Amino acid sequence: MDIVESLLRVALLGSSWVLWLLLALSVVSFAAMAERWVFFRRNRAGGEALRRSLSKALHEDDEDALSKALISNPSVEADVLRAALEWRRGGPEAFSDAVESEIGRARAQLERSMTLLGTLGNNAPFIGLFGTVLGVIEAFHHLSDGSGEAAMGNVMSGIAEALVATGVGIFVAIPAVVAYNVAQKKIADVENDVQALAKLVSAWLRAGGEPHARRAPARVREDVRGELALAEAE
């Protein structure tokens, strides 16, 4: 019986503190959403610029331009490819393995705040429901302590406050769920972009022969073959 009375005293504190808690969580949630929006917007701009400069450098067989494009670009894709290219002497296979490893390392940066948004999206309605339960308990306590219109007024106000807690919980949860799903899509897009650009670099490495002794551009190779053919004819 003592534990019931102790819990009842806690419940009679009402749902106001739950509302303040939900308000604080909503501020944290919107701050996390804003940070993720800025991050993915900047990364998208950098990723598009990287795709253009990287394709141009590879088609022109310009290794200096390739390095410059990766160093000057602030996107996650550039960070992953720049680190993976340090293993290019091991061939395309070693480069691909390094890309997979670097994607795993970059995932922590991509998934920042995802746990927070996912947790709020799943649990904010339950926090609001908890506030509703507390409000109902408080309302019935007022009903048992009094009678008449005054008691009924306290009951009605308590129930109204309780329902507000449920509404606020849903209000916090819905944007968090939407932001979580959108961010997951953005993360998948970044990983797909990395894989696509990595395949392009792998093709470039294969076309260049041994990574530690890359062949000359196609025009030079054709000139060399022509000179060898003339020498054999003589």
From TrEMBL:
Keyword terms, alphabetized: Cell membrane, Membrane, Protein transport, Transmembrane, Transmembrane helix, Transport
Q: Name one Pfam family in it.
A: MotA_ExbB
Cellular-component GO terms for this entry: plasma membrane
Q: Which InterPro entries match?
A: ExbB/TolQ_transport, MotA_ExbB_proton_chnl
Keyword flag Isomerase: no
What are the MotA/TolQ/ExbB proton channel domain coordinates in residue numbering? 75-194
Q: Which family does it belong to?
A: Belongs to the exbB/tolQ family.
What is the protein's name according to its record?
MotA/TolQ/ExbB proton channel family protein
Q: Which organism is it from?
A: Sandaracinus amylolyticus
